[in-house]
Amino acid sequence: MNEVDALDGDGGFGSMSWAGPALAEAPVPMARPVARTIEAFLASIERRAWRVAEMALNDADEALDAVQDTMLRLVRHYSDKPAEEWPLLFWGILRRRITDLQRRRTVRNRIMVWTGRAQHDEDGGELPMWDAPDPGPDPARALASRQSFAAMSAAIRQLPRRQQQAFMLRVLEGLDVAETARAMGCSEGSVKTHLSRALDALRGKLEAWR
Amino acid sequence: MNTSPDKSDRNLAADHELISRARDIYAQACANVDSRTHARLGAARRNALDAVHAPSRQRLWLPAAGAVAACALALGVVWLRPASAPSSAQNQRAALADAELPPDADPRQLDLYQNLDFYQWLAQQPNAHAPENGAPQ
Question: How many whole angstroms separate alpha carbon A22 and alpha carbon A24?
Answer without folding.
Answer: 6
